[in-house]
Amino acid sequence: MKLSDFLNWLDSYLNFEKQQKKGIFWLESMRFLCGKLGNPQNDVPCIHIAGSKGKGSVSKMIACILNEAGYSCGLYMSPHISDFRERIGTADGFFSDKVYEDAADELYRCVSSIPAEELPGARQFTWFELVTVYSFLCFRTAGVDFAVYETGLGGRLDSTNVVLPLASVIMTIEREHTEFLGDTIEKIAGEKAGIIKPSVPVVVGRQRYPEAGKVFEKQAEKCNSLYKDVYDIIHNLSFLYTSEGFMQVKFECDEFDFPVEAKMRFCGEEQAWNAATASVAVKTAVPSVTVSQIEQGLSKASLPGRFEIRNVPSLYGGIRSLVLDGAHTVSSIFYTVNTLCSVFSCSSFDLLFACAADKDIKDIAPLFKGKCRNITITRPGNVRASDISSVASCFSENEMTFEAQTDCSLAVQSALEKASDSGAVLLVAGSFYLLAEVNEFFSHSATE
Question: What GO molecular functions are on record for this protein (predicted)?
Fold first, then answer.
């Protein structure tokens, strides 16, 4: 089955990323379908990662470190920006077409053969469940040595939570998806802590809220799991920016014989801590990995949409620089803004912003106050529900002037033109789907 045909078939199933709906999260369907396929999730040793922010970056860092250690590594992440295969690939790219097609054939044949009356709870599979199982099949088909799985939402009932990992990793927790995960940090942390498995070590990244760490530590104790708080075992962490736009990071770890030093494509204090977390996670899961291999892996890791500095078409040559960042939580946007001002030594910039309806826009909007020359707000494409009027209201309440444009393509064009005229750095943030729209805009511009 061609990948394009497979994706068309997938789109006939409920996609939570496009349509948020309560009551669709449980694991019985995953266990049932995996069982039908011979439990492919058990065929490849893995590392499992949850959290509100940083989990994508850490997933990529871990995969790159394992790759540098001589292992082939499958990488499952979401969302994708331009190509579906960004979700299911390797540390340094994609699998062959044959891997994707053979895995698609296997999944399609299996699902098509299941009578409706056999489905658990008489409930059809969701898009994300099928994609997650598809990742298991791709990794088994490719015969990778390891796999890294990033949760989609939460942890306890996330589709990925049928794996039994070598190590579980929980990144920074924030108030997000409260309709589904709970309205307090403790409740949200409890859902994320659901990936902690009996006797499987858990590595916890730096936390903004101490109460989250307490939830994780309690769950680890309950599961008799070795608990590692990165903030307790990492020391003397430092970072500085190079003239080329890289970040030089250095830190010491109680469990390493030597300090770790790497020049990274990722930038920002949070990414420095993410690098430390990834290093501890890999060493916990695969103790044979060396500090040198960690350094090499960190230096090669990068991801689209994570403080991605893009080339600007000549038509908009007046723009000082274009930065694409999928930051969409209060903390992640705070750090993105600070990182941008530090990397480019600027006190102000232009902004193109959009976010989904479930984001904390009341607390996000003030982070831009006094820092933006020109602001353009829009919708994050046609994928996630958004309320541009709520976004506009919050920016207005903070006494910021802006242009509101419901047509995302026109918003992109307007923001680029204004930044080109002002000679400013243009930050595009708030949604990975907005970043996809920017990429689509550039693709169309290149063909015209």
Answer: ATP binding; dihydrofolate synthase activity; metal ion binding; tetrahydrofolylpolyglutamate synthase activity
Residue 129: pLDDT above 90? Answer: yes
Q: Secondary structure of the chain in the HEC alphabet?
A: CCHHHHHHHHCCCCCCCCCCCCCCCCCHHHHHHHHHCCCHHHCCCEEEEECCECHHHHHHHHHHHHHHCCCCEEEECCCCCCCHHHCEEECCECCCHHHHHHHHHHHHHHHHCCCHHHCHHHCCCCHHHHHHHHHHHHHHHHCCCEEEEECCCCCCCCCCCCCCCCEEEECECCCCCHHHHCCCHHHHHHHHHHHCCCCCCEEECCCCCHHHHHHHHHHHHHCCCCEEEHHHHEEEEEEEECCCCCEEEEEEECCCCCCEEEEECCCCHHHHHHHHHHHHHHHHHCCCCCHHHHHHHHHHCCCCCCCEEECCCHHHCCCCEEEEECCCCHHHHHHHHHHHHHHCCCCCEEEEECCCCCCCHHHHHHHHCCCEEEEEECCCCCCCCCCHHHHHHHHHHCCCCCEECCCHHHHHHHHHHHHHHHCCEEEEECCHHHHHHHHHHHHHHHHC
Asked: is 3-300 a CATH 3.40.50.1000 domain? The reply is no
Domain ranges of the chain: 3-300, 308-447
pLDDT in tens, 69-121: 999 999 999 989 989 999 999 999 999 999 999 999 999 999 999 999 999 98
